[in-house]
Amino acid sequence: MSTIQAYTDATRPAxxxxxxxxxxxxxxxxxxxxxxxxxxxxxxNDGAAVSPISNSYNLSFDGNLDIVNxxxxxxxxxxxxxxxxxWFKLDxxxxxxxxxxxxxxxxxxxTRGIRVLKFYDxxxxxxxxxxxVYDDDSGASYLYEQIRCEITPDTAWHNVVATHYIDPxxxxxxxxxxYYDGQExxxxxxxxxxxxxxxxxxxxxxxxxxxxxxxxxxxIFEGDIDEVAFWDVELDAANADQIYNSLGGGPFDLSxxxxxxxxxTNLKGWWRFENNGNDETGNSSTATVSGASYVSNSL
Amino acid sequence: MNYIxxxxxxxxxxxxxxxxxxxxxxxxxxxxxxxLLKYSGSQPFSVLxxxxxxxEEIKPIMRSAEWFxxxxxx
Lengths: 299, 74
Hints:
The complex is a heterodimer.
Chain A: E1 6-7, E2 23-26, E3 31-35, E4 40-43, E5 57-62, E6 67-71, E7 81-90, E8 99-104, E9 114-121, E10 126-134, E11 144-150, E12 157-165, E13 175-180, E14 183-184, E15 189-192, E16 207-209, E17 222-231, H1 237-244, E18 267-271, E19 288-290, E20 293-296
Chain B: E1 2-7, E2 27-28, E3 34-39, E4 52-53, H1 55-62
Antiparallel strand pairs in B: 1-3, 1-4, 2-3
């Protein structure tokens, strides 16, 4: 039996003309890498089958007044790097209304913290996912970075994982990524405002799911949402792919490492909506659900 | 689920134990004078006689200029 030499991103040799076709196993990404003479081509892992967790309910949003309040999460969020996962299912593949999937409860254009939207770009004429990260007001007022990625909507369940890393000393290192069903999306639009400071954490603002603005909900989701989670680290591609768990058939127990998922200790919030608003990590208080209905799960 | 629109000034007289929405989270019209509520089953006593809408009936109302600002930045 033969084996392929294993390297990490840091230890693999440079891809040069002298090693075209060299094939290695990259333990960082858990993927096969092949040198094309100038760069490494990655053939990504296809995940590992992990048994799905029992999942009896999800939340159904009617698009009119439903909202979930997760509470103030400031003490659980890192200042510079976090990740969010949301499973969602649209009622309509053609609806062009903007939907708030996860973000700060704030209707103004500032202090949004982390925000993930499904929206329709009326300029680019694309359905997409938008992910933005707003900093605090310690430097220039409320700087943000944002990416927009196109998706083709349908009425099936999908998983979105949004990850960010902000380097306050060098904006060139900032990274925002969106993974859709385990695959990283290529942004068609990116906004970078400059050097960001720490994440905006207004002390009185809650994070919400399915709509923003608890005092009069807006950007109200129409469809189903389930298994909302966040981590105070930047998840890598292997983790995002595993969370989608295409081989295992759906969401699994995020509180235990399995397959290529190795971030259970950094899981800071996990709302399964199993007929209750409990945070399964026990780190935050029970989510307040207004209007949205617990329905038998189709995820 | 059934929907009703009430005056915001009447919210204090409504028994939210019968509602499928929490009092502090109701959606208000853009001018703040009206509020949208919903409940399942028959009309609760505290809102008896209020015009009732189905989901399909309330959707276009919620997209009207009184309730929805199409130009609001997302």
